[in-house]
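Colleagues,

For the teaching module next term, I've prepared a clean inverse folding example: a structure given as tokens, and then the sequence designed for it. I'd like students to try predicting residues themselves before seeing the answer, so please don't circulate the second half yet.
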């Protein structure tokens, strides 16, 4: 028997509270309940995958995102999270295929462009990744994903001053990025500033335990 609109609304609120409390598995289960009984499953579907990602369960996240994309196979907003999750797992070929599918629908899809840049970075193609990320930044200067890529390239090339400047800018744009704090910690370690390094690592852990 379908739940009432009131029950669905209550389930949504419980899922949102579970997210705020960082109870991500519970959140995913609540969104699944909402999806099973709601007349608009697309509203909850991506949230299930994201909750599993935050819980560190990448396979469950991928399965959830695949379910999303099966609802609307041509919806790039549902394909991009799946591509990101596949990339995180290391399934580069499938991720690349999805990014290119999205770009075939919209050549200006910045999420797909950034995803491909990150894919190139994962493969160690630093100059290609940097160029692609800078192309994104020309259109969207505050894109923190593209900014992170340029920072990682600078870090790997041992341009520590440039890397520090980039990661600091990224944190100014989005203070919740644990990855930027991690790299600032690595830079502080490389420059023999252990207290600064610990401070940045503590911030990263607080954001992403």
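(Answer key — instructors only)
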């Amino acid at each position: 028997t379908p739940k009432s609109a009131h029950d669905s609304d209550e389930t949504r609120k419980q899922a949102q509270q579970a997210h705020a409390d960082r109870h991500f598995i519970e959140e995913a289960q609540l969104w699944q309940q909402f999806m099973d009984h709601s007349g608009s499953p697309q509203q909850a579907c991506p949230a299930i995958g994201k909750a599993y990602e935050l819980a560190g369960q990448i396979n469950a996240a991928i399965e959830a995102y695949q379910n999303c994309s099966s609802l609307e196979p041509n919806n790039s907003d549902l394909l991009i999270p799946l591509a990101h999750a596949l990339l995180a797992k290391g399934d580069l070929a499938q991720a690349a295929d999805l990014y290119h599918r999205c770009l075939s629908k919209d050549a200006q899809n910045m999420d797909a462009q950034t995803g491909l840049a990150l894919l190139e970075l994962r493969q160690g193609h630093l100059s290609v990744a940097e160029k692609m990320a800078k192309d994104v930044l020309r259109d969207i200067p505050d894109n923190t994903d593209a900014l992170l890529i340029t920072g990682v390239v600078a870090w790997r090339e041992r341009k520590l001053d440039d890397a520090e400047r980039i990661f600091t800018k990224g944190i100014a744009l989005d203070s919740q990025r644990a990855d930027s704090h991690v790299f600032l910690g690595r830079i502080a370690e490389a420059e023999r500033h252990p207290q600064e390094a610990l401070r940045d690592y503590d911030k990263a852990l607080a954001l992403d335990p």
